[in-house]
Write a structure and sequence with these properties.
Blueprint lengths: L2 E6 L7 H8 L5 E4 L8 E5 L2 E5 L12 E4 L4 E2 L1 H13 L4 H4 E4 L3 E2 L2 H13 L12 H9 L14 H16 L10 H15 L3 E3 L1 H10 L4 E4 L25 H6 L6 E9 L2 E3 L12 H9 L12 E3 L1 E2 H11 L3 E5 L9 E10 L4 E2 L11 E9 L16 H14 L3 E5 L7 E3 L1
Parallel strand pairs: 1-10, 1-11, 2-5, 2-10, 5-7, 6-8, 7-9, 11-15, 14-16, 15-19
Antiparallel strand pairs: 3-4, 12-13, 16-17, 16-18, 19-20
Helix pairs in contact: 2-7, 4-5, 4-6
The chain binds guanosine-5'-diphosphate, 6-O-phosphoryl inosine monophosphate and magnesium ion.
Amino acid sequence: MQVDVLIGLQWGDEGKGKIVDFLSPQYGMVARFQGGPNAGHTIKIGEDKYVLHIIPSGIFNKGTLNLIGNGVVIDPIVLNWEISKLEDKKFNVRDQLMISNKAHLILPTHKLIDATSEFSKGKMKIGSTLKGIGPTYMDKTGRNGLRMGDIFLPNFIEKYELLKNKHINIIKQFDSIPDFDIEGEEKKFFDSLEILKNFNILDSEYFINSFLASGKSVLAEGAQGTMLDIDYGTYPYVTSSNTVSAGVSVGLGVAPTKIKKVIGIAKAYATRVGSGPFPTELEDETGEKIREIGHEYGATTGRKRRCGWIDLPQLKYSIMINGVTEIALTKLDILNSFDEIEVCTAYEHNDGRITDQLPYDLVNIKVRPKFEKFKGWNSDISGIRKRTELPPNASDYVEMLERELKVPFKYISVGPERSSLMVD
Ligand code: GDP
Ligand code: IMO
Ligand code: MG
């Protein structure tokens, strides 16, 4: 009957996949509404670890359908590879997965443009995952794109060639073009599409609305995070989609009036992968320690994630933009061995002005974070399942965050497994 939304409140990698997997038995459907294979959502089930890029994280729950919505951009090669990995593990992807015919296709040459354009930017590069996200959304808004439903058209190849040639002309404008096996990628692209033709490719907006009308509920799974949103993130160091809760309506075709809960996911500290401003970043051994204990390496690219302390002005902004109704705090266990934990409570401008608002442009307007110190708990909390059993310093830390952010902390996560969670 209702759509709940789950989104990242920081710069991505907050642990969305784990929480979606945990919540999926409560929903008839999990639906991705934006982004594409730039996402890497990790789910740990027993000894097995899965990283999902395009398939929603509800796929491990037998009774849950999983929809790749119209707002997503699909690389058929990645999707096909992901399906086969799950099928090898005996998950029933074919019956549980639906794909919108309006989702745009990432062509091999979109990935080549992504790489060419990034390399041309030198030091100014975004730090893109190079999965072709930006160029595909550019073709979507530029009204040149190809969509999943187009693969059934008799003139699909013609349309493909037209767009590919446009891309090749764009690439020729650049001084240096990275190595790229266009023919090899093209073969994989078409082979993958042939396999995907056997999947449920449908008018997803009709499907999801009749699903809701029949009394079932949907969890919309965000990718990336609010600070990577094309409008509200640290532009231009962002991704190319609306990662915020408002993106759900356009990315799935469900009216805003259908949306009920907005579950925000926040790590107990902060990370960012790729370039761009990050006010609370720690470029010292403390940052290094968080990275090592938290295994903060990209799930999609393997790159080192930049680490820092939690940032309250940033989180308050995300809560405001998304209308967050409850929070899942993740990776609290990573702070087990710190004597002191710092929290950014405000920013100081160059002229000495103190604010708790994010400046419009964090790239050119420099702010210094103002920190408050809290005592660490120096003990292992990963086995704790009740909030009341947290050591006093851990409990104080969580309560302080909850008080400041003014949103109930419904979940506190203390490990990568489904069960490593306190539910309030
Ligand atoms: P997502 O993109 O938001 O789904 O997050 P990622 O999967 O990219 O990164 C989160 C990482 O932290 C993954 O390796 C998860 O298995 C892991 N993780 C999630 N929650 C917790 C937690 O509470 N504690 C610990 N130690 N690891 C967690
Ligand atoms: P999940 O869903 C963290 C970052 C990239 C880069 C910028 C633009 O796992 O949280 P793009 O490939 O979109 O052109 O990259 O956004 N980025 C992510 N960072 N988690 C993600 O997804 C990300 N998806 C993109 O590192 O800085
Ligand atoms: Mg991730």
